[in-house]
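Put briefly, the fold is written as integer tokens. One such record reads:
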Amino acid sequence: MAHKELNLRERRAIEDMLNAKIAVREIAAEIGRHVSTVYREIKRNHYFDKELPELNGYYGVVAQKAATERRARRRKLVRLVGLRKAVIKQLKEGWSPEQIAGRLQYEGQTTRVSHETIYAYVYGPDGQSAELARYLPNRLKKRRPHHARRPRGLVFPPDRSIHERPDYVDSRETFGEWEGDLMIFERAQGKMNVASLVERKTRFAVLFRNNDRSTTHLMNRLMGVMEPLPQPARKSITFDRGIEFRNWRKLKPGIGTEAWFCDPQAPWQKGSVENLNKRARRYLPRDAPVAALSNRDMKSICDRLNGTPRKCLGWKTPTEAFREELMKLR
């Protein structure tokens, strides 16, 4: 049986019986509704007045008006063609409903929509017929290290531990503090991998392809990617203790960048890049043909990640936040 909303007649009956002190279970039986439906209706549409608390209560007409307004909000994406097209476009770009709603608010748009309304539309009849749910971001489990990595000797000395890292880095107060990692792929892809970097304050992401996991090759590529930035924009990078990063000492004399290292088997200590990896896996799954990816392909993925508004940035995009910080350095 299809879901049927309570109507004004039923809501007036609920009001009358509540005033007569009739139990909710009896009210439900009288109007032919499930008792939980009546409980939910009374709780959802209970009227409150802070200045005149004696007016608090359930009123059928008020409840009907509130329910009608909720239905109108839910159908905003059905009624407003331009808004609907804009929302669907951003869904197809990989934005979450919360990011879409937050961006509308950040841009000061007069016509806005809540993320709940977007979800309701996606899972409603129109959204289901257009298969919009497939564009929602995946809720993947937290990425785990591909191998059990252990420090070797004093490759990663105690004075480079994350616990020795300045507190202002942890609090994201300063610009130019990065996190780095490697994204590993299926064995069929050979030694190909993708290095991921993220600036902690702005969440700006950089991805670049590696032909192997050689530490010399990786560090040379990393320095080549970071060198065009002004030195204050590349103060430090925090890595895990993967042996790929054992040539970290090249960073300081090479590009003036400090290196810090997480505890063994503690990837959550560099949570920003772990989060980036999770987002990037939507475009770079483990069976992706990495060898076929061009520099243009990698830039396109970065542009998409950096062009998505982030709640932690007040709904700015990482690109916007990163550019603002660079402007301050001039």
